[in-house]
Design brief:
- About 40% of the residues lie in helices and about 20% in strands.
- The protein is an alpha/beta fold.
- Strands 3-4-5-6-7-8-9-10 form an eight-stranded parallel beta barrel, surrounded by seven helices.
- Helix 2 packs parallel to helix 3, helix 2 runs parallel beside helix 10 and helix 6 packs parallel to helix 7.
- The termini are close together.
């Protein structure tokens, strides 16, 4: 089974290292992000997700990481901000409920790889029909980033994955040892926040996800 379906002529990464405002503001983030990109290469993506960071700062970060995107093949994905992604040469955009619609984004950027954050099967189907390249479904397990929301569970993930031909990336409280059950539920990749950026060695943590994925390549 291939890692994931093609998006914009390439293969959708299978390990997604997702940030938040706090992670992006930490001293040394760029160095850590570069180490993660080197570790994952073209099978990984670094998602620059920030609700409160000014667009100018997000652009600076994306621009600083762009040479590593070219050198390693690891994707830079800007969450929500299609304008920043286009300006900085990022490979993809992750659209959320706050973003412009998938159809409008596809019209503006026909060559951009576009993902959609989904919380129900119907949303995944809408993303597919509108020209999306992948969906991120969650939260699967309880997670600090959504402390008020219980995990939706593996049945939820299985339902989303079965509802669309797009690669389904699971997110929410996922640890490397859970990648196997994620794959069995139909996930074509996994996304992590604290599991990568909360580790002492972010690059080693990212590789643990990738190693677990490879250990379960025939699962699902």
């Amino acid at each position: 089974m291939a890692d994931a379906a093609a998006a914009g002529g390439a293969i959708v990464p299978v390990v997604h290292a997702v940030t938040d405002d706090l992670i992006l503001s930490r001293v040394g983030f760029l160095e850590r992000a570069r180490s993660v990109m080197v570790a994952l290469r073209d099978r990984g993506a670094v998602h620059l997700r920030a609700r409160n960071l000014p667009a100018a700062r997000l652009y600076e970060i994306a621009l600083a990481l762009h040479p590593l995107q070219e050198a390693t093949g690891c994707w830079i994905v800007c969450n929500d901000r299609l304008d920043v992604a286009l300006a900085a040469g990022a490979r993809g955009v992750q659209l959320t409920s706050r973003s412009m619609s998938m159809a409008d984004a596809r019209g503006v950027a026909p060559a951009m790889a576009l993902g959609a954050s989904v919380h129900a099967r119907a949303e995944a189907l809408i993303a597919e029909r509108a020209g999306g390249d992948w969906v991120v479904a969650g939260n699967v397990f309880p997670t600090r980033s959504h402390a008020a929301a219980p995990g939706k569970g593996l049945l939820f993930l299985r339902g989303v994955a079965a509802s669309t031909h797009l690669p389904c990336i699971g997110i929410g409280g996922i640890r490397p040892e859970q990648v196997g059950v994620m794959r069995a539920a139909g996930a074509r990749g996994v996304a992590a926040i604290s599991g990568i950026w909360g580790a002492q060695d972010a690059d080693r943590a990212a590789m643990e996800y990738l190693s677990s994925y490879d250990a379960h390549r025939d699962t699902g």
